[in-house]
Amino acid sequence: MDFTFKEEHVAFSDSIRKFLMVEAAPEMLREIWETESGRSKTLREKLAEQGLTALSVPEEFNGIGLGDLDWVLIHQELGYYAIPDSLTDTAYLATYLLSHLSTDASLKKEWLPKIANGSARVAVGHPRNPLVADAANADLLLLWHEDEVHAVRRKQVQLTQHPSIDMSRRLYQVNWTPSDTTRICPARIGKALWEGLVDRAALAAAAQLLGLAQRMLDLGIDYAAQRKQFGKPIGSFQAVKHHLADVAVKIEFAKPVLYRAAYAVMREQPRRSVHVSHAKLAAGDAAWLAARKSIQVHGAMGYTWEADLQMFMKRAWALDAAWGERAFHKKRIADFIYADQAPLGPGETFT
Amino acid sequence: MRLEYTEKQKAFRAEIREWLAAHVPSKPLVSFDTREGFEQHREWERTLNAGHWSAVTWPSELGGRGCDLIEWLIFEEEYWRAGAPLRVNQNGIFLLAPTLMEYGTDEQKQRFLPRMAAGDDIWAQGWSEPGAGSDMAAIRCKAIRDGDHYVINGQKTWSTRAAYADWLFGLFRTDPDSMRHHGLTFILLPLNLPGISIRPIKQLNGLPGFAEIFFDDVRVPVENRMGDEGSGWSVAMATAGFERGLMLRSPGRFQQTAKSLIDLYKQYRQSADADSALGDAAVKAWMDAEAYALATYSTASRLRKGGQIGAEASTNKIFWSEMDLAMHEAAMHMLGPRAELMSPSPQSAGDGHWLDGFLFAQAGPIYAGSNEIQRNIIAERMLGLPRS
Ligand SMILES: Cc1cc2nc3c(=O)[nH]c(=O)nc-3n(C[C@H](O)[C@H](O)[C@H](O)COP(=O)(O)OP(=O)(O)OC[C@H]3O[C@@H](n4cnc5c(N)ncnc54)[C@H](O)[C@@H]3O)c2cc1C
User: Most buried one in B133, B137, B156, B354, CB count within 10 A?
Assistant: First the structure.
């Protein structure tokens, strides 16, 4: 039993943090998000140089071949720096689907190396979300149809954009026609694959939400230390301190939940979906509380377009319902705890 | 990261589970806040000690098993799962002992620890005074050096178990001219010394769970001092760190409560579902108890690799006390008009244990450093916000 990360995990996510601090500063992201595509080729190339696009691509396809536990720390950083959905959807989710295809070696050969080197974007569509993120930027779309997996090129689909309050999001209604030629995996195998995908997607969202929570807390702390009223920094007032302390508590107790969920997914443990739902709810809660408390601490400044806080708040509000709204995740937990003979109580945490 | 138990850890769990199955009293003991119950619980401590289970984390030469923190967690999980009696000597074994191991002399360890493990000495804590609650540095109770003794005059209050306990540890002002946390000394003393009078205080449930202690020229030998004279504050902070940090409330306790709450919800589902907040509370109880367990395993793993207990002492305190309160509030709402009933009413729920728990949960956010004080600590030491 050991609940600590290996040093190389920590070192890698530290290096990503330092990189993003420079390359994904809020003013740069704002500029990118104001463009029509909302994405930057240059930033994507830099992310690829850092190895992020290759992280879970198997080595035989020029990737690094790492797994869910490696991703969870990285996703916290991606959340902290509000890196848009396309990276996660391509490098974690689509890569998971593609590399688990039992057949169709040609599809893997064509796409996985391009994902690894950062030259392709792939979007993933599943009915858990009403719209598909980054569909217009994608070279390939992997779409759910009755538990089958279908692969369609960008030009085979018709898209209608739906604007989101989160400026980083690019959401599309996708019109397409499933056919024998687009099907790359039958429902019989696809069902489990999609379940694995939804768990990973919700896990990634949870990790990003926790990163966002930390970012909003840090913004609140910085602001409270520097803004003065009544001749003192507002951070010296107890009411302000307690707002921020509450956020810190929420974050502290969501983290180990997240890490256990990542571990359970990595090990394909039977209760992984329950753990993922727990992580998503706990992280969502932390992020929403962080948003509320941080804007309160910022005063009117927090209500402006200009203050960076808004970028992170909006992303947190959006991601909370991505890959399963709260009702979905609560139900998965309720079904588990109310089952006859449910393993509850002391000593069952790791059984 | 490896979230599976080793074979050795599994064997340890099996061993304690088997022992508890054979030894836990089949009838619940009387509350340890009665004289009769106190002695019953002391007997239970003796039984535990005879099986070498009373202080598993201590080294074996002192009566323990040299368990690491993961094994301690396993022990605690099994303990709560088995519904074993509350630990009447929690103050001694979990709070004083770690401090004694760090700051006590070898002589003091030999003198106090084996008797503590055996239940021969049950300990109370003496920090609070009428004028020193949250502001513990305002302690005034004096212990003035007179040759090889300290002479104690003044008052302590809210001292848990002191109505029946044998010994007291706490902070006293040895330098009458000192201010705040200077000039305080950590002293251990038997509660039957001449000049001590104890006035039990009834708690919400009507039982004397804590007491006031009055000192009138009480003479305590200097060898009962722990650490240097005047260094009591830092010694006490070590105790407070352990208390808030890890050992005061192990996760098994709350996982047991969460499980009972889920059972209660299932039992009352028809009426409970009319208030959708209750189903939500049951889900949240499971999640929070689980989160607390995971966080504790995480801290234990870190400490085992040489880390220090830091701000999680304060985040833990807030988290468990608010979770405990929320779970008991939900139970009261589920029980509805039966919630207020006490035993022997045949309709009282589970001998009124929800009611007892609900009353005690009210105190969680107050004792061991109130939650407001913990939030101050988090804000200043963890988040680096300016002091007020
Ligand atoms: C069940 C129980 C068992 C106890 N057992 C023991 C024991 O064994 N030994 C012992 O020594 N003591 C014990 N105590 C006492 C406990 O440590 C104190 O109650 C606690 O430290 C708070 O002090 P107080 O009660 O004087 O409240 P006060 O300090 O008067 O506080 C009252 C309220 O004011 C708030 N407050 C005070 N100062 C601040 C501040 N700076 N910022 C914000 N809010 C503030 C508090 O948070 C609280 O809400 C016990 C208490 C209880 C309830």
Answer: B156
**B323-360 per-position pLDDT tens digit:** 999 999 999 999 988 899 987 888 876 667 899 999 99
One domain for residues B214 and B282: no
Q: Which of B45, B61, B88 is the last residue of a domain?
A: B88
Between CA A157 and CA A159 the distance in angstroms is 6
What value does the mean pLDDT take over residues B369-381?
Answer: 96
User: In whole angstroms, what is the distance from residue A163 CA to residue A222 CA?
Assistant: 31
Contacts of B318 in chain A (CB under 8 A): 245, 249
Does ligand 1 come within 6 angstroms of the Cβ of B239? no
Q: Is there a contact between B76 and A224 if contact means CB atoms under 8 Å apart?
A: no
B189: three-class secondary structure by DSSP: strand
Same domain, B254 and B169: no
Chain B, residues 204-243, CB within 8 A of chain A, namely: none
Q: What ipTM goes with this model? A: 0.96
Instruction: Supply the pLDDT for residue B310.
Output: 80
Query: Among the atoms of ligand 1, which is closest to the Cα of residue B135?
Result: 29
Residues B343 and B295 placed together within one structural domain of the fold? yes
Please report which residue ranges of A64-186 form alpha helices under DSSP H.
68-80, 85-88, 95-99, 105-116
Ligand 1 closest atom vs CA B160: 8
> Active-site residue B243, yes or no?
yes
How sure is the predictor about B240, in pLDDT bands with cuts at 50, 70 and 90?
low
Considering only CA atoms, which residue is closest to atom 48 of ligand 1?
A: B370
- Is pLDDT at B243 greater than 60 in this prediction? no
Q: In this structure, are residues A206 and A283 in contact, taking their beta carbons and an 8 Å threshold?
A: yes
Please give the residue range of the domain that contains residue B327. Answer: 249-382
Residue B150 has pLDDT above 80, yes or no: yes
Residue A125 pairs in a beta bridge with: A143
Ligand 1 atom nearest to CA at B376: 42
Count up the domains in chain B and report the number: 3
Rounded to the nearest whole angstrom, what is the distance from the C-alpha of residue B279 to the centroid of ligand 1? 33
pTM of the predicted protein model = 0.96
Question: Which CATH number belongs to the domain containing residue B19 in this structure?
Answer: 1.10.540.10
- Neighbouring C-beta atoms of residue A227, cutoff 10 Å: 16
Q: Residue for token digits 């916000």? A: B385
Cα end-to-end span (Å), chain A: 12
Give the minimum alpha-carbon distance from B195 to chain A in angstroms, rounded to a whole number. 42
Per-residue pLDDT at B241: 64
The answer to whether residue B74 is domain-embedded is yes
Question: What is Dmax (Cα atoms) for chain B?
Answer: 71
Give B63's pLDDT tier (boundaries 50, 70, 90): confident
What is the distance in A from the centroid of ligand 1 to the CA of B184? Answer: 19
